[in-house]
Amino acid sequence: xxxxxxxxxxxxxxxxxxxxxxxxxxxxxxxxxxxxxxxxxxxxxxxxxxxxxxxxxxxxxxxxxxxxxxxxxxxxxxxxxxxxxxxxxxxxxxxxxxxxxxxxxxxxxxxxxxxxxxxxxxxxxxxxxxxxxxxxxxxxxxxxxxxxxxxxxxxxxxxxxxxxxxxxxxxxxxxxxxxxxxxxxxxxxxxxxxxxxxxxxxxxxxxxxxxxxxxxxxxxxxxxxxxxxxxxxxxxxxxxxxxxxxxxxxxxxxxxxxxxxxxxxxxxxxxxxxxxxxxxxxxxxxxxxxxxxxxxxxxxxxxxxxxxxxxxxxxxxxxxxxxxxxxxxxxxx
Length: 333
Prior knowledge:
There is one protein chain. This protein is α+β, with helices and mostly antiparallel strands. It has one domain (31-328): 4-Layer Sandwich (Glutamine Phosphoribosylpyrophosphate, subunit 1, domain 1), CATH 3.60.20.30. It contains 9 helices and 12 strands. Helix 2 runs antiparallel to helix 3, helix 3 (77-90) packs antiparallel against helix 4 and helix 8 (260-271) packs across helix 9 (275-289). The longest helix is centred in the first third of the chain and has 23 residues, at 50-72.
């Protein structure tokens, strides 16, 4: 009898894992996808050591994969973006949650928002100083209050009512952020040139529902009480199953005036153009026309992914059921 070569059980499992996503897409199954960002701005290769770059990439991959794991097990897009953003808030490399930039008085003031593309429900918080994960509080505002946006002390009182454990503001401070503030205060430039950054995520689940979430510490050396675009629905965050989900990052004051996130989705709806074309028009025409910089991540119900920016770079990553799995910082990688 001729020898029969058999696949090992491990090899068989590996082949199945590779084939299932491809077969599902071929059969027209609903795709799942997640896209995240960790802020856009001037990212000089020369200033980013190999170790720091590896750290950023690892942080982005971990957050991306945490969100995708939620989608893979049948979880909602809302839970996926929350999981991804929460991980970025816990990573001191990024300007959200722990490691957030400090205002003029050395205090971290945090903003976040979330939106459900199926229902158009949204929740947001601004100027909170003691909430470990602002994205979770924004989600609670959406799901457990009649409001969309709560700020400062009122938001934190609501957090206590919902069982959130508050943390001291010192939790968010890191040595690098303290040094950054000291450098900025000793310079002759004003707070408008302060370091910026934001984290965010957009996701598409197995039910074809979109969601978006954004979180930030805002601008370094900002005036106390300053609020940027991240917690403003339509400016920094927007999701609608009829068009797209968007999370933005950049010069917040300009993104508010331009209602960037909603504008991208409106162009898809009213102009009938592709998501890629819509993002390009908003970022490279409207925003550049105002001499502002930044970027967006966006996703539609067909699983089309867009990561567009007009700055030196944008920390970003994406993963979907079609096999895409990438992470990038600069314009080319």
